[in-house]
Structures are given as structure tokens and as C-alpha cells.
Model the fold of this input.
Amino acid sequence: MDPVLDNLDLYWSGFLRSLGICLWGLVGSLALGTLIAAFRVSPIPSLRWFGTAWVTVIRNCPLTVVLFFFAFGFPELGINRSYYVFGVSALIVYTSPFVCEALRSGINAVSAGQAEAARAIGLTFTQSLGQVVLPQAFRTSIPPLGSVLIAMFKNAAVVGAFGVGQDLFSVGKGLANAQGYDALPVLTGVAVFYLLITLPAGAILALLERKVAIVR
Amino acid sequence: MRMKRTMAALAGATLALSLAACGDDDGGDSPATVEENPEFESGTTMAELAEAGTVTIGTKFDQPGFGLLGLGDEPEGFDVEVAKIIAGALGIAEDDIDWEESPSELREQLIEDGTVDFVVATYTINDERKQRISFAGPYYNAGQMLMVQSDNDTITGPDDLKANPDQKVCSVTGSTPAENIKQYLANADQLVLFDVYDKCADAMEDNQVQVVTTDNVILAGFVSESDGEFKLVGEQFTEEPYGIGIKKGDVEFCEFINQTLQENEDAYLEAWDSTAGQIEGTERPELPEPDPCT
Done:
């Protein structure tokens, strides 16, 4: 009996579920991370303070603590959502400071003359950040952003342990336990399907880097 | 000076008393009897184990009432006591037993590669598992039930779940109850899975899930701890015969275990009373008829 080939349909649905978590996490953490990065370089002190506090607190919390807080803390406070929403939100919140810091390294790499020129032609802070600085910053920070995002794809496996279910992690557990398959081939199958997410992601990032890299 | 000496004596006595109390808790008064030099046909598993004088037994370390490793060195529970009865019949005292943690997904593997000599670990007998190992027993018949909050009138049994897809059901990832309940659900999203039942109970307290399902004995523990917040509903809707996992095809060992249990029914009942029987709402079982050994 071959646990992986016999259960390809289960693995496939688990793969799609995990991929969904990864994609929501990708979109959400890029958006939130960019916003926090904008806070950190903004001219308004309270926003800068908020951005710094966000990064300091969340970057120093273990992922499982953040997940626990969402999955068990919020319900305790009377906030009830599905575990899928909680899990994905926790993943986004956890990844956002890393995205923010990777992006900020890119912002720092944009020469000061660019921002000064933008101000000189009368762009506001938001306009100069959004139309001049950030587009260049994103292109510079693709390598560190890529590492952060691939780390997030792998962290998505932990989300499965917090009530989300039907993802690759849960499929593996189900096959090894209730159906009595050998754990090693089952988990190897899970690893292979995760590679199906992370390896193409790495390839796409490398391609993106070649296409948009700034030659200095 | 005299005063000091009296205090020291008192302190010493208190210490001795508390140590003695600890000794009692460690299951030193186990109901299992140890045979003196039992005779077995040479070449059988029993002869090998009796000769070696030690045995390695797999059990759960995280299942209250059945196999739970607390702060002591040895796990406690019904499974542990049943294992001691079998070891005793082999002439092995409980001090010579090595306990090996056997989480659900590793049980077959531990038996196959010989890490453990047998497994007593809330181990439901089923056909998939029989392809890799053999079962002695059953020694206990559990059954799956549903637990809900006391004010929940919507769910009265598993058949109500399909009509109420907003009533989320919680169980443990990869467990037999989680597989069994799937046929009663409206869709896959109705099932919430955690690694342990404690989290399911927490989630139900906070209205994240409305139903928790697993074997009745485990649920009874949660109901008795909940101060009337939780209740069991409906009837048992599955049969979960717990067996003792041994190497595939070891018919002689299987027959020996079955015979040992039949001969030690009193010890078996005593084992229940001192462990899982302590949980409010559980019923004292009768020793089930063993399945034929294959």
C-alpha cells in the first residue's frame, strides 16, 4: 500500500487549502507590512511611534503565541470568528513586521535626492512615497522580501494546528493515525507538497528580481 | 537546644509521612498479581519476556483516566493497570516495566519495529490497523457520543448536525471519532480539529464550537469537571472496542493475553474502579468477550 499515491485526492485538496492560506497571507502581509513601513517613515511622530511599537512587540513574539492569542484570546473576549479567519489573520499580523523591515531597508536604499526632488515638484508626502520612493524600494528589497514570504509559507503549516483543518498538516495527521499508514512516507508526501508551494515561489521571485532589478 | 531537637524530630516525622503518602499515590497498591516463575513453551513471546524479566509497554501519556503521565515517573490510568495485569502474569513486577509513550500515529510503527512488546493505548480495533498488527482483546468497549453546552437544545444527537451547519463540531486531528463524525456533517467546514480534547472543551466554553465529539469516557471527564456547563446528548452511535496491539500474527501471545484477562476479572474491575471509574458519569464495564485471535 502506498499512502501517498492511494490518497492523491486528499493530498490535493489539502494542498489547495494550504495554498489558499498562503495566498491570503501573502496579500494580507504585503499590504499590512507596507502600511506599517509607511508609518515608520512618516513625518507624524505618533504614527512613527505606532509603527515602531508594532514591529518591536510582534516581531519578538513566537508565532504560536500570536496564533494562541487569536484562536483562544479573542473568543475569551467575546469575539467569535471562524478559525480560518483567526488563523489567516494571525499569520498576516505575525508576518507584517518582517515585511515592514525588509521594505524599510529598500526605502533606505533609495537615495535622498529622489525624495527631495519629489518634494521640490510639489508632491505631498503620500504622493512622493507612493509614486517615487516605494516603487523603487520594492524593487530593491525583493531578495529579503522573498525570504520573508517563503518563511511565511512554511509558517502556514502551523496555522493548521489551530482548528483550521483540511490543510496538508491535517491530511497527514489523519492518514498516519486513523487510517494506520506508516508516518514516514505520509509526512514525506506532506513535505513534497509543501515544496510544490515554496520551490515555484522561489523561482517566481528569482524571475521577478531579474526583471525589475535596478542596475546601479 | 531541647526545643530545637523536638522541632527537628517533628519536621522529620512530617517528611516521612508525606513521603509515605507519595508512595501510595504512585500506584504501589496495584491490583495486578505477579506470578512466581511462570512456565511457558520455549520460543513463544511469553517465554522470551518471562526469561528477560522486563517488558516495554506502549501507552498514552496524555489521556486522563487511561494513560496519563503526571509529575511522577510512571503513567497512571486504566490502560496502565491492564498492562500491569498482563505483565504480572508473565512474572514481571511493575518496577520492571519500561513505559514508552505511544501517540496515536506511531502505535503501529512502534509494534512493527519492536520498540515496544505490546501497546495498551485506547487503541480502537479496526481493519486498517489489522493489516499491520494484531489485536488481543477487546478489553473495553467505548462508544462515541456528543457533548454540548447545557443550554443547547438544538442538538440532541448526531442526526441533527446535518440540518444545523452553523453548529461546529470539534474533535482531534486524525482520530477515529473525527473520521466517524464526517458522515453526519453538512460540509467539511463544520468540523474543527485540534491536537488535544482540552482545546475543544475550551473552544466550546467560548462558543467557537458548539459540539465536542469523542469516546464517551473522555467526554464524561469533561462533563464532570465543567460544573454543569456541559452535558452529553443522545446515544452512543459507534462501537469502539479497545484492543491490545501486538506483533502481527502472534496468535499464542494474543491467546495468552485474552486468557489472562478472563482469569483476572477481579483485578480488571479493581483497575477500572481505581482509575477511569473515578470519573463521574462513567459506568463500570463488564469484561467483553475476546475476539478470536488471528
The mean pLDDT of chain A is 90. Chain A has ten helices and no strands. Residues 160 and 170 of chain A are 7 Å apart (CA to CA). Chain A touches chain B through 26 residues (CB under 8 Å).
